[in-house]
């Protein structure tokens, strides 16, 4: 299924056959481009970037690579092909044909979910907008920009759903998505993690590994939706999301590699000898662990409360399923089953069986945690191979939480409940301190010679699109 690039708005949804919708989106488009020029990557409008663009929506072979100036990127509307006879696969409506139009009684729930997802897309572009100025290489700069333009396209994907299915309030939501700003005191983005700063490249890599992975799980749950246009939209977005997580995983992997190699070469045995490791111009492993703790705990909050009637309703209605819903071997209605949830009981953290319906968020979060852990295992292999004695670990899910069961408690990365004094004494060992941030910042010097890399990160093993190591991924003086 190919995409029509002859249109003002590239699409595979035959937009030209729906003049009202086409006009509404063409009306939104200049606002989007204004937002991009105001809030998109700093000083980037003239650089030529070796970007991939979707040319079809088939799972394999949809990408075309070429130099593009980002404001000329062909953002558009791409849905995975419609499956004939697709059914609703869970909840009260299980077995009925998937909806092609929004069911009236679920309109506000669906709108809220689409707006919340949509809001994260421009938010991450805003969070990352200054990073280009301190890129560790042209290869990394290109990857940052690729992620940014695709998040821009994900905004298009959600705005299309709002315009196509929610009439006037959908159009108003589309405007509001361009008006909110990450970190703004008066008009912030909807979710906390998307109002945090992404101050350096280590944060960017952690964010794309950890927070884009939350995106993967949210999109995967929405890809199961009984509302077919939402399902099809999310299925195509997931193919793009995979690259974002690749950027994060390999970015951290290369940073670990470089740190460990530098330690070996200099004969530094102790990973906790922070001053010595830092003097080598690389990022010490305990600081990497702190960054991981921060991003992981912020991202767990994105899954919402462990026990949630909203989540139960979205499932029962057939709007939002579980991860790989159709592969799960149960009745897909969950009216009589339970799911274990970590809760605070008599001052201790315990597993408690809750009705599976209200524990839907918890289940998605557990699937997410397992997926994160697999990534960590691969990172730990990289460290292990160098012979450095250090392992990265996910902190306890109750650590540093602002939403859900544990939000009012102070809990160590190991899962111990602490008083204020113990928390304050340990905090700087568990979360990045101002001094850590300053050190990382001191390494963030731009490297823009083709084939060259900053001191703190190893080159990638293979280039993008199989390009050679010294390929000019970004032409800055274009
Ligand atoms: Fe996205
Ligand atoms: Fe993403």
What do these coordinates show?
Strand 3 and strand 4 (348-355) form a beta hairpin. The radius of gyration is 23 Å and the shape is globular. The mean pLDDT is 96. With 478 residues, the chain is mainly alpha-helical. Helix content is 47%, strand content 8%. The protein has helices at residues 19-39, 107-127, 138-165, 167-179, 201-223, 228-266, 274-279, 285-301, 309-316, 360-386, 420-430, 434-443; strands spanning 48-54, 63-69, 338-345, 348-355, 410-411, 417-418, 474-475. It is built from 12 helices and 7 strands. The strands form 3 sheets. Strands 2-1-7 form a 3-stranded antiparallel sheet. It has a two-stranded antiparallel sheet with strand order 3-4. Residues 151, 212, 215, 241, 244 line the site of one fe (ii) ion.
Give me a quick take on this structure.
The protein is mainly alpha-helical and 478 residues long. The chain is built from twelve helices and seven strands. The relative contact order is 0.12.
What's the structural blueprint in terms of helices and strands?
Elements: H1 19-39, E1 48-54, E2 63-69, H2 107-127, H3 138-165, H4 167-179, H5 201-223, H6 228-266, H7 274-279, H8 285-301, H9 309-316, E3 338-345, E4 348-355, H10 360-386, E5 410-411, E6 417-418, H11 420-430, H12 434-443, E7 474-475
Antiparallel strand pairs: 1-2, 1-7, 3-4, 5-6
The chain binds fe (ii) ion (2 copies).
């Amino acid at each position: 299924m190919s995409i029509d690039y002859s249109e003002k708005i590239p699409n595979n949804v035959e937009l030209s056959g729906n003049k009202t919708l086409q006009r509404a989106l063409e009306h939104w488009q200049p606002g989007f481009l204004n937002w991009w020029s105001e809030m998109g990557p700093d000083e980037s409008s003239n650089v030529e970037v070796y970007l991939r663009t979707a040319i079809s929506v088939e799972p394999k072979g949809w990408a075309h690579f070429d130099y593009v100036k980002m404001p000329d990127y062909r953002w558009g509307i791409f849905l995975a092909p419609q499956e004939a006879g697709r059914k609703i696969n869970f909840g009260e409506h299980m077995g009925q044909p998937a909806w092609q139009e929004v069911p009236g009684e679920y309109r506000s729930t669906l709108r809220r979910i689409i707006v919340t997802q949509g809001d994260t897309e421009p938010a991450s572009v805003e969070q990352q907008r200054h990073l280009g100025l301190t890129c560790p290489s042209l290869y990394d700069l290109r990857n940052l920009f690729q992620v940014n333009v695709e998040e821009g396209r994900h905004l298009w994907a959600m705005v299309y759903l709002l315009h196509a299915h929610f009439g006037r309030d959908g159009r108003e939501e589309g405007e509001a998505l361009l008006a909110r700003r990450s970190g703004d005191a008066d008009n912030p983005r909807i979710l906390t993690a998307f109002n945090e700063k992404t101050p350096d490249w280590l944060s960017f890599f952690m964010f794309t590994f950890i927070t884009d992975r939350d995106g993967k799980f949210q999109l995967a749950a929405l890809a199961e939706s009984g509302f077919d246009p939402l399902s099809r939209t999310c299925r195509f977005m997931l193919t793009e999301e995979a690259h974002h997580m690749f950027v994060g995983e390999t970015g951290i992997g290369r940073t670990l590699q470089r740190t460990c190699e530098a330690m070996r070469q200099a004969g530094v045995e102790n990973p906790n000898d922070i001053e010595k490791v830092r003097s080598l111009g690389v990022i010490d492993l305990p600081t990497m662990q702190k960054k991981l703790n921060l991003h992981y705990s912020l991202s767990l909050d994105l899954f919402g409360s462990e026990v949630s009637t909203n989540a139960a309703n979205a499932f029962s209605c057939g709007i939002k399923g579980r991860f790989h819903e159709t592969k799960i071997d149960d009745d897909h209605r969950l009216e009589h089953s339970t799911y274990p949830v970590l809760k605070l009981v008599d001052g201790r953290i315990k597993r408690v069986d809750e009705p599976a319906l209200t524990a839907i968020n918890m289940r998605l979060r557990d699937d997410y945690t397992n997926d994160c852990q697999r990534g960590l295992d691969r990172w730990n292999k990289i460290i292990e191979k160098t012979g450095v004695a250090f392992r990265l670990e996910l902190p306890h899910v109750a650590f540093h939480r602002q939403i859900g069961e544990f939000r009012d408690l102070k809990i160590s990365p190991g899962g111990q409940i602490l008083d204020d004094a113990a928390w304050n004494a340990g905090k700087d060992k568990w979360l990045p301190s101002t001094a850590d941030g300053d050190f990382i910042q001191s390494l963030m010097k731009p490297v823009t010679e083709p084939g060259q890399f900053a001191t703190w990160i190893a080159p990638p093993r293979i280039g993008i699109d199989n390009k050679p190591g010294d390929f000019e991924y970004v032409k800055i003086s274009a």
